Amino acid sequence: MKVKVLLLKNVKGLGKARSVVSVSRGYALNYLIPKGLAKEISEKGAKTVVDKIKNEEEAKKLRAESDKKLLESKPLKFIVKSGENDKLFGSITSSDIEEKIKKVFNIPITKKQVKLEKPIKKLGRYVVPVKLYKDISASLTILVEKGE
């Protein structure tokens, strides 16, 4: 006999956390539930959970779309000290960009979302991809200008 369970953690070969799957009753009661990997839910509960997850995913996608428009609306400026040949004293890293995005645009992101291939070490204009959602990335323009 099969039962529906909501996975609380990723289970290899079965599914990702927060997904609803059908498994044999014995597997659910003897392994998944005691180990805290899943909890049993009714047919009605399964439908509710699936709808809630879809709504959350849709909200995340809409948020990412609006964040993309915002990030692409204006360049992010860094005023830095530089030496000969426009070389910076130090460099601009993913962490610096993350902090500046949070401050200027008020968008909660992590440095892992900033896809900077290598730290910026010269004055100029750069385009850096920022991954906001599964298939949504913004092309963030960064201006590195000379300061005092």
Structure description:
The structure is a single chain. The chain has helices at 25-32, 43-73, 94-105, and strands spanning 2-7, 20-24, 38-40, 76-80, 87-92, 120-122, 124-133, 136-146. With 148 residues, the chain is an alpha+beta fold. The chain folds into two domains: 2-62, 3-Layer(aba) Sandwich (Ribosomal Protein L9, domain 1); 64-146, Ribosomal Protein L9, domain 2. The strands form three sheets. Strands 2-1-3 form a three-stranded antiparallel β-sheet. The longest helix is centred in the middle third of the chain and has 31 residues, at 43-73. It is elongated and about 75 Å long. The chain starts with a strand and ends with a strand.
Quick tags:
single chain, 148 residues, alpha+beta, Ribosomal Protein L9, domain 1, Ribosomal Protein L9, domain 2, 2 domains, three-stranded antiparallel β-sheet, three-stranded mixed β-sheet, 3 helices, elongated
Which secondary structure elements does this structure contain, and how are they paired or packed?
Blueprint: E1 2-7, E2 20-24, H1 25-32, E3 38-40, H2 43-73, E4 76-80, E5 87-92, H3 94-105, E6 120-122, E7 124-133, E8 136-146
Parallel strand pairs: 4-8
Antiparallel strand pairs: 1-2, 1-3, 5-6, 7-8
For this structure, the CATH topology of the largest domain is: Ribosomal Protein L9, domain 2
Strand order, largest beta sheet? 2-1-3
Give the biggest beta sheet. 3 strands, antiparallel
Write out the CATH superfamily name of the largest domain. Answer: Ribosomal protein L9, C-terminal domain
Amino- and carboxy-terminal Cα gap:
74 Å
Radius of gyration (CA) equals 23 Å
